[in-house]
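Bumping my old thread because nobody answered last time. Still need a sequence for this structure:
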């Protein structure tokens, strides 16, 4: 079923039940369409791309023969790159982030269906709130925005019906000690991925997990039975991507899983100085999996290489960069 909403050209005061951007009224009036005395138009299907609505004060022929004082653009696909390209074409600007594009569009009387912030679910141990806060700060500093929930999993958390692509653009998960989640979490994450969700994983997932957990299905690494401290020295970028761009080369020297192997179809992006896998990605249909062989509990500030790697991985998985 198509997702669309009503629009009207409104030079008067705001209408109850609608959003007003410039001279555009968007949404369903509380007292009904007839009460407004305006001509309302149904917008394009938002499932096919990000919609940008604009006013046309001089008017143009509408689909039903009436004069329309508004119109629409839609991106070719629902990706940040496609939205940014369309916004640049409309504005004549050179936006590098979707957030900057939204801000300009709204300030200049355009409405857009692009969500201003990505929704992220962090699953981890008792330090998950600190980790999420630091990553969120880093992402904000780069000009993007996320809204997040942070959950200390324990041994019973499964996510239930809450873990869906409609609720979360990305799920970030790591384990530590007894913080592995419940038996049903694995199934719910697999279903989330199959429905188009994206997952970023970290240490100690590859050796600390609940019985029957589908490690190799939700990550780019296979399970391993060992953990330890990574070697010193700079990390090695084996395939330059937006994830590793500008993050630095120094990772923490404690806690990793000893060289987990790549799952079938995964692509290695970085290693430690001893050759152990550090960073890898895998695509499953439209879903993106990113795995980082480093412990998120090392994320104690928003400027470290490990924080930037997790932050960029989230943005990559969400389709922002």
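Sorry it took so long. Here it is:
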């Amino acid at each position: 079923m198509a997702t669309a909403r009503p629009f009207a050209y409104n030079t008067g005061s705001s209408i109850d039940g609608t959003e007003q951007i410039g001279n555009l009224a968007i949404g369903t009036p509380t007292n009904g369409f007839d009460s407004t005395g305006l001509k309302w138009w149904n917008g394009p299907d938002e499932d096919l791309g990000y919609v940008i609505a604009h006013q046309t004060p001089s008017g143009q022929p509408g689909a039903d023969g009436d004069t329309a004082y508004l119109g629409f653009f839609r991106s070719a696909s629902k990706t940040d790159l496609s939205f940014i390209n369309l916004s640049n074409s409309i504005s004549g600007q050179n936006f590098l982030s979707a957030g900057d594009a939204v801000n300009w569009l709204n300030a200049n009387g355009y409405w857009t269906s692009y969500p201003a912030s990505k929704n992220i679910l962090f699953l981890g141990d008792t330090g998950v709130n600190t980790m999420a806060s630091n990553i969120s700060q880093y992402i904000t500093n780069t000009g993007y925005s996320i809204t997040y929930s942070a959950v200390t999993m324990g041994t019973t958390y499964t996510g239930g019906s809450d873990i869906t692509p409609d609720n979360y653009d990305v799920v970030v998960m790591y384990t530590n000690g007894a913080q592995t989640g419940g038996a049903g979490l694995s199934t719910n994450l697999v279903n989330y991925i199959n429905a188009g969700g994206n997952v970023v994983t970290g240490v100690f997932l590859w050796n600390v997990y609940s019985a029957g957990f589908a490690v190799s299905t939700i990550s780019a690494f296979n399970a391993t039975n060992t953990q330890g401290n990574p070697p010193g020295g700079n990390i090695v970028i084996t395939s330059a991507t937006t994830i590793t761009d500008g993050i630095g080369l120094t990772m923490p020297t404690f806690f990793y899983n000893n060289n987990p192997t790549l799952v079938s179809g995964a692509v290695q992006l970085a290693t430690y100085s001893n050759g152990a896998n550090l960073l890898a990605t895998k695509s499953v249909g439209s879903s993106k999996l990113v795995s980082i062989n480093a412990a998120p509990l090392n994320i104690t500030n928003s400027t470290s290489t490990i924080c930037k790697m997790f932050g960029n991985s989230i943005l990559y998985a969400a389709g922002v960069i």
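The chain has a mean pLDDT of 93. Let me know if any region looks off to you.
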